[in-house]
Write a structure and sequence with these properties.
heterodimer, A: alpha+beta, OB fold (Dihydrolipoamide Acetyltransferase, E2P), 2 domains, 24% helix, B: mainly alpha, MetI-like fold
């Protein structure tokens, strides 16, 4: 096991800058998820940690060693790919034992290590099969097994669940998390799925356009997003954003509603601000309730456990998640009241100012 | 068994097979290396090299033969060097025929291997690297087995090309019975003399039979490899 430190790392392909100076510290045994929309540079960064891409500038350390110029084979890592990258001409056992064979480990020992890993992943009956004879989930497990058997300092996962169907993805999510709790190996995991990030990570790194937007524990990011991008990216359904103008008695929204805000804000009255409210912090109120936003019901989506309500309000659509079941119908007039002290305020550049 | 072909005809068949086998096996390793360099390499002059390799495919074979004669003939720069330094003479020898056939078949061999290299998932090679494999090891254990069907296809094409090569061969090494007279040149000779139709026809049949056998064998090998290695 090892900590990984990434210092002012940059990557450009020709004149195109993909990673624009990234600093991340990953502690020994930590499960860190790099998350962001496609094209944000997260996979490139992972490949740089693996040694599959050159580092244009900056420094990557694994343990106490600077690995910038160390080839992948000597970095003591194991990577799991989205496409699994299993060898079609090798059996499951041969695939899993690949790294041991490379090390020149005695056959008996190899067999034992592969057998143990296979048993822990429920792959024992499949050891003599070829990858083409396995389902997607089984292939994923073999790819993980191959990485585990290597017993590396760091596991790298590149969107490992993206090729699986929704149900299997949820199951594998729990399996990977459990695996990490058992092995406690430092893990860096890339995904574009914020739910994967929220559910699995000790620490999330939100990336956007080649830079780090915020680093923190899942709930920290959820409760205190550093900027509008993180606020909008983390959470499903996504946070509602309403443009408003800061006035004497609070934030005036397009609907005429005035949202009370902290007395001491570091911005001048009259500034344009964005108010972010999570869908679960909007409650249904009788029309005309003071401090509520008048709206018309557009779509009602019952999921069983809760109800997602999409409404049309002045300034755009809003989403509310109600814990109770709803009898509302499209076209009905409602009012949505933001829960007290649960709104986030962002300035015109998107930076967080305060909670309202 | 031998009485349905005359001794001269047998000689031509044996020579053709020898020339084609030597040409194909000798160009195998350079072919793999060239395909790898052209597909994966990022070096100055790669495109020029690509064009050069493919030139025999589009040039008139006689031009290739003439170029070989200029370069590898007794007085050619390469020919005289080989003759003086190593005592190897190519012009008007069966070895020269093999060289001509190898060069004519080379683009076909390289193309087939390159196409299969293109379809290899680079992640498979990346994964091997992250699992501790040296690049050379990755090539032999991962890449090579995956491109084996392409290599087989390329060898068959190269072999077939060598069996049928005429223009470059006859220009470079002429049409000497027992030394450079392969099946195509023998058929050509038969058609030039009165009463030679029988021999031409018999050799044409042999040619067809060898081609069918080669195709069938390559199919069988490719299927075996695919079943063993690939989905």
């Amino acid at each position: 096991m090892a900590h990984v430190s990434i210092r002012d790392v940059r990557k450009s392909f020709g004149s195109v800058s993909i990673i624009k100076g990234v600093d991340i510290d990953i502690l020994d045994g930590e499960f860190v998820i790099l998350v962001g929309p496609s094209g944000c540079g997260k996979s490139t960064l992972l490949r740089m940690i693996a040694g599959l891409e050159d580092i244009t500038a900056g420094e990557i350390r694994i343990g106490s060693r600077i690995v910038n110029d160390v080839p992948p084979k000597d970095r003591d890592i194991a990577m799991v790919f989205q496409s699994y990258a299993l060898y079609p001409h090798m059996t499951v056992a041969e695939n899993m034992g690949f790294s041991l064979k490379l090390k020149g480990m005695p056959q008996v020992e190899q067999k034992k290590r592969v057998g143990d890993a296979a048993a822990s992943l429920g792959l024992t009956p499949l050891l003599d099969r070829y990858p083409r004879q396995l389902s997607g989930g089984q292939r994923q497990r073999v790819a993980m097994g191959r990485a585990i058997v290597r017993d590396p300092q760091v596991f790298l996962f590149d969107e490992p669940l993206s090729n699986l169907d929704a149900k299997l993805r949820v199951a594998m999510r729990a399996e990977i998390k459990e695996l990490h709790q058992r092995l406690k190996t430092t893990t860096i995991y890339v995904t574009h799925d914020q739910i994967e990030a929220m559910t699995m990570a000790d620490k999330i790194v939100v990336m956007h356009d080649g830079t780090v937007e915020q680093i923190g524990a899942p709930l920290e990011l959820y409760d205190r997003p550093a900027n509008r991008f993180v606020a909008g990216f983390i959470g499903s359904p996504a946070m509602n954003f309403i443009e408003g103008c800061l006035e004497q008695d609070g934030l005036a929204l397009p609907s005429g509603t005035v949202l009370p805000v902290e007395a001491q804000l570091p911005v001048a009255r009259g500034s344009k601000l964005t108010c972010g409210i999570r869908p679960e912090h909007l409650q249904i109120a009788p029309p005309g309730t003071p401090g509520s936003i008048p709206a018309t019901v557009a779509v009602v989506e019952p999921t069983g456990a809760d109800t997602t309500l999409i409404v049309k309000a002045e300034g755009g659509h809003l989403t509310a998640v109600l814990r109770e079941r709803s009898t509302l119908r499209p076209g009905e007039a409602v009012a949505l009241k933001p829960a007290a002290h649960q709104a986030h305020l962002f300035d015109e550049q998107g930076g967080r100012i305060a909670a309202a | 068994m031998t009485d349905w072909l005359s001794p001269e005809e047998w000689t031509a068949v044996r020579l053709s097979l020898k020339v084609a086998l030597v040409a194909t096996s000798a160009s195998l390793l350079p072919g793999i290396a060239m395909a790898y360099a052209l597909e994966r390499g990022r070096f100055w002059g790669r495109q020029a090299l690509d064009v050069l390799v493919h030139l025999p495919l589009v040039l008139p074979p006689v031009v290739v033969g003439y170029a070989l004669l200029l370069g590898f003939g007794r007085r050619g720069p390469m020919g005289s060097l080989l003759a003086e330094q190593f005592g190897v003479v190519l012009s008007f020898r069966w070895t020269g025929a093999a060289l001509a056939c190898a060069i004519m078949g080379f683009p076909l061999l390289v193309r087939a291997i390159r196409l299969s290299l293109e379809t290899v998932d680079r992640k498979l090679e990346d994964a091997a690297g992250t699992l501790g494999a040296h690049p050379a090891w990755v090539f032999f254990v991962v890449t090579l087995p995956l491109i084996l069907p392409g290599i087989i296809a390329g060898m068959v094409l190269s072999f077939a090309k060598a069996m049928g090569e005429f223009g470059a061969t006859i220009t470079f090494v002429s049409n000497i019975p027992g030394e450079t007279q392969t099946i195509p040149s023998a058929i050509y000779t038969f058609t030039q003399v009165p009463g030679g139709e029988g021999g031409a026809l018999r050799l044409a049949f042999v040619s067809v039979a060898i081609s069918i056998a080669a195709l069938w064998m390559s199919e069988w090998m490719a299927r075996r490899v695919r079943r063993r290695f690939l989905a």
